[in-house]
Amino acid sequence: MITVRVPAKVNVQLGVGGLRADGFHDLANVFFAVALGDEVTARHGEGVTLTCTGPDAASVPLDDSNLAARAARLLAAHHGIEANVALHIAKAIPVAGGMAGGSADGAAALVACDALWGLDTPAEVLHALAAELGSDVPFALLGGVALGRGRGEILSPLPVAGTFHWVFAVADGGLSTPAVFRECDRLRVEAGTGCTEAEVATPDADPALLAGLAAGDPVAVAGALSNDLQSAAVSLRPALADTLAVGTEAGALAALVSGSGPTTAFLVKDAESAEAVARALRESGTCRAAHATYGPVPGAAVRTG
Length: 305
Known about the structure:
Elements: E1 2-19, E2 25-43, E3 48-53, H1 67-79, E4 85-90, H2 101-116, H3 123-133, H4 137-142, E5 145-149, E6 154-157, E7 164-170, H5 177-191, H6 207-215, H7 218-224, E8 226-227, H8 230-236, H9 240-249, E9 254-257, E10 264-268, H10 271-284, E11 289-295, E12 301-302
Helix pairs in contact: 1-2, 1-3, 5-8, 6-7, 9-10
């Protein structure tokens, strides 16, 4: 039995370029891994089977649409072996919440199956397989803080000092990532800026954000947080504006929608502030749950002890 712990992510910057001919957008995506995470356990089995427990377990598909199952099959096919594994997901990352929970489970399954089957797959091969599974899967392998380019899968680790404290407010229901990107394009056209790659500049990482991360300065990072998908997520789920306001009024240094949402993220100055902001969010009735956590943390790794 192999158990792998894998982190959720928040995008401290999500710069979205114009719509490409292939339907994707070029990104400047600064990923930040946080301690809120899932665990995926792999045991020997017949074929690929999936089970799941946790608050959102009923929303997790247990067929081949699940990235964990697809990861197991992809790894086995790469090595020319049968995919025989029973996978169990202990779910803590919100489902369809903009924190890459499905991608995290795919990364964890790659690591767990590689260890269970004794394959010793080189890290660069695991990364390539992860990129086949989805844009966010490679970062779940890497963890820490990194700049993602292309669709987000081309990663460059970034220097970061110290520990940053976060609160995540979980909304009722999820948001479809493709739907949020479509709404972003629609809003850009409505605003008259256009939405294609010929009309929208290719984004780049914000130097002020990178400097704040390298210095371990939460105030500087708070001043540079940005998400080009936030207006689209709020357009599709207007109640998110209330959640963002509650966390800010409760003392967060900054607030933003996490990725494509609908989870909202609040950067705070310390662990005590995190608990206070989480409590205010829970009591406000504007979210289903609120979790205080921290980061950055490593990527998917076998749990020891």
